[in-house]
Amino acid sequence: MTTLAPAAKASSSTDPLLLIDVDHVRFYVGNAKQAAMYYAHCFGFAVEQVQDLTTGSRDSATYLLTQGNIRFLLTTGLSSQHAASHDVMLYGDGVKDVAFTVFDATKAYERAISNGAMSGQEPRTISDAHGSVTTATIRTYGRAQHTFVSRTGAYELTKIKEGGVFAPGFRKLEDLAINRYNREHPCGLKYVDHLVGNVELGKMNYWVKWYENVLEFTMFKHFDDKDISTEYSALMSKVMASGNNLIKMPINEPAEGKKKSQIEEYLDWHGNTPGVQHLALRTDDELHSIAELRRRNVEFLTLPDTYYELVWARVDKMLTEHGHKPVREDHEAVKKLGILVDADDEGYLLQLFTRPLQDRPTLFFEIICRRGSQSFGKGNFKALFEALEIEQGRRGNL
Q1: Answer CATH for 3-184 from 3.40.50.11190, 3.10.180.10, 2.60.40.1400, 3.40.1790.10
Q2: What is the assigned CATH class of domain 189-395?
């Protein structure tokens, strides 16, 4: 039997806002069953568990997708009154909640509220004979929110990672054919590297302060319109990081340009409401992951061949100056797969961005592999923006 009750006070001497992990990322979608198949077929996720009418959920259906240490919850409202139905009508499919595992969700929530957060949901505990899950939610920019999650018994995070039931009210799905296929043909995605939010013009510093004050993050990197610009458009970005640098959340705002930037396009098609623009998913083998995703017909941004006439000299020079070994991946394979490369004083990275995942030009994924570098591909910003502008022009949104 599952019970729902106000959250009990749990004792812990740990910093309340010490974030252990990205517990999950919740998407609000128009049809969770169909969306689950899309992410399974295209990106190699396992469709593991469900919470729906068959498990006693009368207002929504939610599918749990996993790959490596990535956990996505895809939620659909089963009536027009559900919040997911309202969000999908206004914004289309997209990220609603970036949830964090903490030692004590109630204490984390109380600390965030005392730091100035606005409540999204007061602490509550769902429990059964096997354990409990306590959640509490605060609102952040636009449609987005953060939920603190603490777990006990069979629902502890270590057990979830081993394939345990996600929370009371979920049931495991039978061994689906697509899951067997994905085990045999892995895409190699490991965990969420960072999550990028788009906010309105003039609001980036407001939300930077919010993350500093409410979640006690610090600024990890800062890019201005001189770093991220082309002849036509520009943006500014500040990367916020949790105290242990485990969670990184860049915040973007538009900057003045001759034409619309990708941030303005996002806002135009997202109800002029801030939200999560993209998730960066980490892999240990960029060439394998991109090759497999391309084989599955995932669409990526296209770069001109001239990019590769310049990139190797720039990257090799940076690596040599700081005593690092050159890029070990085969250069021709990198070019054939259309992968971007960048380097800094700590090493290099490989990255590539998908086209929008839905018909609205809003949410997309980044596939990233780090070989020492902890930056975000600053050297690729101009080439990336030019590729994005080509796509915006095709959509008539530049």
Answers
A1: 3.10.180.10
A2: alpha beta
